[in-house]
Amino acid sequence: MKKIKPVYLKTIGAVAGLAGGMLYYYQVGCINGCAIWSNIYTASGYGLLLGYLAVSMFVADKKEVKSDDPS
């Protein structure tokens, strides 16, 4: 089975967060007084950011192997 690249997993997480932010705006939202959730663009942006960060906590990027040989 092929492994999914970390970039694709992070993109999927970001898109899921975007959809979650939009869903939260339409279902719960805030009519007045909320700076973050009262606007669809900020709600979607924060959802996208949270989705990306949530997935990137669990996905390991490839790290370069450094040798101890100073040349």
TrEMBL record:
Domain of life: Bacteria
Listed transmembrane segments: 7-28, 40-60
Key words of the record: Membrane, Transmembrane, Transmembrane helix
UniProt KW Membrane keyword: yes
UniProt name for this protein: Uncharacterized protein
Phylogenetic classification of the source organism: Bacteria, Pseudomonadati, Bacteroidota, Flavobacteriia, Flavobacteriales
